[in-house]
């Protein structure tokens, strides 16, 4: 098939055509744009054809002729079939340019008349294909698109390879895909490269990540799947998109989801892919592989212990068939693809599976594995099996594997008799709490609702309500109905009331934005817990009270932290993200004790990881990223923030919080556009969740990103909203959000130094009361800009010099660099030499790339900026000249608006246009123009 058109630039690829292939596509696109060829390779179902279609749709628009072929296995024995696909429709256009022997040989091969063969007409055919491609290329660029190279008939493959190796310097490119079966590090695709142009780039299509599989399933309509199910789909599919979609379809069609511990249903379509190779196994080898498929970490020793006496020979047979692969770095048995294991298990009967699990329940050395196999080998309730599973769940919990503990707990509940102690509801609730710890909120919520549908005991019901509330995360407004029901179930039991009032404290903070109410609820929860002898609940409530008081700037905060750190401590609270350790970290970082804060948060992060507490890990990653950001280690902060964001995306927990921190990190050490996008996402999520606490944080991040992007007016809009929100919330400690300096600086940028000074004065009062030294230094830096705007450059320079020295002493590397930048910028406006070298050095040390780019721009445009002349005003519109004239008189934006009968926003927008037209940065340059006029 041919496509003829004038050569033009390729259009950009639509991002919704492929998922998770951005880097791959970028590399292939660059190769094609440079005139090279691309060979896409990977296993069946991995998405090679999707990539090929996407690249063809994009790059095919840049060439004159597109030649396509796509073979199938059933057609691979037909000679010259692929050649006919490629050249059949265009041979008439070039036939007259071929020598007679070549034309005859080619027409014979394409039409099947004359019985042309490579043996008889080999050289003539080879030269004919080469000549035909050169003739097409003489009219304009040619793109050959060949999918499934492995099924091309040998004759066509030979002819295409012959031409490809000899097309150097000719505008003919190849975009091909081939199925490979070997490991990613192997070189199976090399033999196809030898049949490709010399400049061909091999591109491996790798498995999708779990997040990308989730996105793919959503995109294809398999929405609402629990994260634990998506995890199982990803594991079973090995990240293969075709397999993942087939598994998702099978789940959607299944009347009942698989029980805990059971594999996913494998549809017939996928079983067929491996059934041929499985049928080649002997019956004994198949049984041996079935045992391996049921084991978590199968080894030869395990198979022998499970009664498979000839395991070594039988696994060797399986390896020869490509069902198993060698694993040099470990003695275990590894299936060539997880789907083979899943298909083996799915093909087995229920009786065969129980027999395999029974054998493994005695063969496995790990107590968790023994218990799991015992449960899967048993039917009905059995207190002995339930007890063993409960013990195994506790072991998994202690090992830091809460997800495993949740699965074992649900198995234990299934085997627990109704009247046993602990009962089935208690086991399910423990499993739900383990699922929460593992970040599997969907599973936890489902289990809790199942308990609420059947349980009558108040303790079980309150515990289930707490799981429902905790699973909501920051979207607590969506579970408001749970609180009155939980209070009713709690009655007057102080132990149960502790749990409810602790969550009510969080609700007051997140949903209502009422810090004082939150503090009172936290104190009540601590008192109730003390009366009930619930030390864990008391410690959590005290830690919450301490964090709230810290954010409020309450004088009791240090004393409450000490109470929360008193002995005896509960090890489960020690690394809880809402525990006393986290409260102490927040106090340290707000008090400018960065070294101690880093030490504290690093220890908490290590413990959370050891215990497998995903939400705590996310929280502490953000805390460590924040600490590194304060210290000016922007690259490290960016990496930590992205790690936290990745976890948040995978679990659905704390996405707004992680997006806020990552936005700040991007604005400091990454890309401003990404910072803006993340901040806007965080604002949208916080508004959707009704989370006023994080709405203020998200708006502060948006304001900061806008400031770094040079949008002072946008920064002011965002940060004025933060000021209003925090006033309503009752937050008085400026170290909580640290947005005040940004607001003052932005206000100066839009010509509102008076309002900027008001912000500085009001904030300084709170900062002095609480001893927030770094906040005071940043306020001095902002006040220097106010002084500069008022025509007091000497006073401004003194304040900046002092602020820079104090920030350096406190260890705030990025803020120190910003002070040095402001000082250098101030000096460019004064007579005499000026240099940005110090600011550039400090920003480079911090790896603060957005700021460094600003410095580099200033070096080019700042000192070389010509003085303003009165004639420059001639380029302005009438309203713009009026606004400039009033600025020259010293009028502020509100006064200008009143005198010209326009809004303040119109004044701000007008000044922005004036700055752009005159090539200046702020109203300070307009004041300089006025001074120049006066001296003239």
From TrEMBL:
Xref: SMART domains: AAA, HTH_LUXR
Residue span, HTH luxR-type domain: 869-934
Pfam families named in the record: AAA_16, GerE
GO molecular function terms attached to this record: adenylate cyclase activity; ATP binding; DNA binding
Record keywords, A-Z: ATP-binding, Nucleotide-binding
Classification via InterPro entries: AAA+_ATPase, AAA_16, P-loop_NTPase, Sig_transdc_resp-reg_C-effctor, TPR-like_helical_dom_sf, Tscrpt_reg_LuxR_C, WH-like_DNA-bd_sf
Gene Ontology process terms (BP): regulation of DNA-templated transcription
Region annotation (Disordered) ranges: 186-205
UniProt xrefs under CDD domains: LuxR_C_like
Keyword Nucleotide-binding applies: yes
GO CC annotations, alphabetized: cytoplasm
Keyword Nucleotide-binding assigned: yes
Xref: PANTHER family: TESTICULAR SOLUBLE ADENYLYL CYCLASE, TRANSCRIPTIONAL ACTIVATOR DOMAIN
Protein name: Helix-turn-helix transcriptional regulator
Lineage of the species this protein comes from: Bacteria, Bacillati, Actinomycetota, Actinomycetes, Kitasatosporales
């Amino acid at each position: 098939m041919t496509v003829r058109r004038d050569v033009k630039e390729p259009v950009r690829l639509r991002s919704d055509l492929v998922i998770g292939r951005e880097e791959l596509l970028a590399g292939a696109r660059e190769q094609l744009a440079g005139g090279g060829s691309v060979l896409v390779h990977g296993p069946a179902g991995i998405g090679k054809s999707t990539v090929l279609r996407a690249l063809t749709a994009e790059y095919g628009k840049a060439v004159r002729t597109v030649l396509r072929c796509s073979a199938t296995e059933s057609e691979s024995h037909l000679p010259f079939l692929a050649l006919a696909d490629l050249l059949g429709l265009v041979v008439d256009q070039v036939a007259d340019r071929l020598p007679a022997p070549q034309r005859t040989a080619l027409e014979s091969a394409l039409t099947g008349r004359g019985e042309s063969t490579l043996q008889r007409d080999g050289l003539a055919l080879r030269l004919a294909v080469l000549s035909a491609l050169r003739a097409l290329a003489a009219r304009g660029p040619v793109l050959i698109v060949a999918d499934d190279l492995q099924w091309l008939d040998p004759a066509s493959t030979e002819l295409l390879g012959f031409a490809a190796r000899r097309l150097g310097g000719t505008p003919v490119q190849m975009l091909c895909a081939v199925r490979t079966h070997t490991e990613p590090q192997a070189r199976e695709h090399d033999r196809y490269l030898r049949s490709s142009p010399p400049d061909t780039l091999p591109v491996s299509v790798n498995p999708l990540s779990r997040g990308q599989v989730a996105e793919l399933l959503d995109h294809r309509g398999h929405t609402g799947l629990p994260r634990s199910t998506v995890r199982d789909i990803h594991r079973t599919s090995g990240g293969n998109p075709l397999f993942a979609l087939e598994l998702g379809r099978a789940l959607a069609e299944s009347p009942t989801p698989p029980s805990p511990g059971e594999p996913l249903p494998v549809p017939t379509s996928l079983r067929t892919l491996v059934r041929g190779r499985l049928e080649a196994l002997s019956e004994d080898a198949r049984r041996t592989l079935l045992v391996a498929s049921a084991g978590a970490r199968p080894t030869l020793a395990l198979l022998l212990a499970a009664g498979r006496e000839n395991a070594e020979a039988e696994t060797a047979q399986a390896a020869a068939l490509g069902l198993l692969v060698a694993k040099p770095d470990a003695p275990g048995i590894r299936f060539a693809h997880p789907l083979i294991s899943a298909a083996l298990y799915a093909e087995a009967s229920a009786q065969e599976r129980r027999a395999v699990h029974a054998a493994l329940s005695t063969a496995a050395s790990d107590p968790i594995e023994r218990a799991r196999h015992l449960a899967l080998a048993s039917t009905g309730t059995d207190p002995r099996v339930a007890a063993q599973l409960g013990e195994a769940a506790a072991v998994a919990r202690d090992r830091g594997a809460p997800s495993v503990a949740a699965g074992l707990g649900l198995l234990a509940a299934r085997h627990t008799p109704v009247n046993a102690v602990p009962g089935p509801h208690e086991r399910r609730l423990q499993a739900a709490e383990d699922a929460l710890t593992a970040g599997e909120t969907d599973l936890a919520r489902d289990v809790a609702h199942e308990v609420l549908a059947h349980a009558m005991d108040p303790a079980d019901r309150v515990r289930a309500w707490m799981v429902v509330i905790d699973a909501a995360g920051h979207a607590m407004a969506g579970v408001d109905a749970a609180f009155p029901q939980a209070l009713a179930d709690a009655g007057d039991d102080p132990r149960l009331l502790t749990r409810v009032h602790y969550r009510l404290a969080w609700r007051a903070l997140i949903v209502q934005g009422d810090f004082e109410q939150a503090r009172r609820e936290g104190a009540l929860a601590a008192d109730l817990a003390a009366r009930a002898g619930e030390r864990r609940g008391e410690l959590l409530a005290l830690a919450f009270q301490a964090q709230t008081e810290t954010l409020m700037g309450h004088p009791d905060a240090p004393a409450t932290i000490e109470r929360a750190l008193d002995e005896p401590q509960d090890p489960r609270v020690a690394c809880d993200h809402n525990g006393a350790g986290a409260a102490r970290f927040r106090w340290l970082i707000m008090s400018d004790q960065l070294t101690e804060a880093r030490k504290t948060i690093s220890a908490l992060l290590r413990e959370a990881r050891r215990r497998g507490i995903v939400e705590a890990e996310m929280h502490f990653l953000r805390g460590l990223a924040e600490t590194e950001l304060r210290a000016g280690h922007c690259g490290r902060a960016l990496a930590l923030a992205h790690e936290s964001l990745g976890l948040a995306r995978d679990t659905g927990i704390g996405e707004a919080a992680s997006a806020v921190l990552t936005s700040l990190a991007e604005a400091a050490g990454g890309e401003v556009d990404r910072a803006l996008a993340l901040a806007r996402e965080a604002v949208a999520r916080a508004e959707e969740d009704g989370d006023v606490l994080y709405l203020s944080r998200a708006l502060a991040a948006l304001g900061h990103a806008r400031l770094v992007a040079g949008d002072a007016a946008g920064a002011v809009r965002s940060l004025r909203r933060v000021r209003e929100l925090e006033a309503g919330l009752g937050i008085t400690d400026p170290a909580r959000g640290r947005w005040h300096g940004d607001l003052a600086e932005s206000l100066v940028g839009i010509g509102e130094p008076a309002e900027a000074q008001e912000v500085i004065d009001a904030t300084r009062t709170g900062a002095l009361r609480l001893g927030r030294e770094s906040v005071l230094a940043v306020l001095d830096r902002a006040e220097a800009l106010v002084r500069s705007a008022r025509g007091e450059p000497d006073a401004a320079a003194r304040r900046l010099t002092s602020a820079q020295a104090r920030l350096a002493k406190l260890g705030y590397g990025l803020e120190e660099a910003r002070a040095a930048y402001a000082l250098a910028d101030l000096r460019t406006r004064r007579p005499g030499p000026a240099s940005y070298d110090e600011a550039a050095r400090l920003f480079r040390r911090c790896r603060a790339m957005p700021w460094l780019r600003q410095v580099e721009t200033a070096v080019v445009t700042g000192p070389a900026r010509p003085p303003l002349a009165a004639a420059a005003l001639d380029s302005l519109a009438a309203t713009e000249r009026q606004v400039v004239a009033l600025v020259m008189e010293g009028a502020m934006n509100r006064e200008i608006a009143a005198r010209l009968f326009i809004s303040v926003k119109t004044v701000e927008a007008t000044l922005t246009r004036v700055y752009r037209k005159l090539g200046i940065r702020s109203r300070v340059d307009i004041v300089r123009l006025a001074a120049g006029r006066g001296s003239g």
